Amino acid sequence: MLRSFIFTLVLSCVVTVSTSASDKLKALIVDGQNNHGDWPKTTFMMKKYLEDTGLFTVDISRSAYTWKGEDLLEKFPLAGVTTTAVDKPQSDPNFKPEFSKFDVVISNFGYGAAPWPQETQAAFEQFVRGGGGLVIVHAANNSFGEWGEYNKMIGIGGWGGRNEKHGPYIYLDEKGEVIRDTTVGNGGHHGKQHPFEVVIRDDTHPITKGMPREWLHAQDELYDKLRGPGENLRILATAYASPDHGGSGRHEPMLMTIDYGKGRVFHTPMGHASYSVECVGFIVSLQRGAEWAATGRVTQSEIPLDFPTADTVSVRKFE
Question: What is the pTM of this model?
Answer without folding.
Answer: 0.93
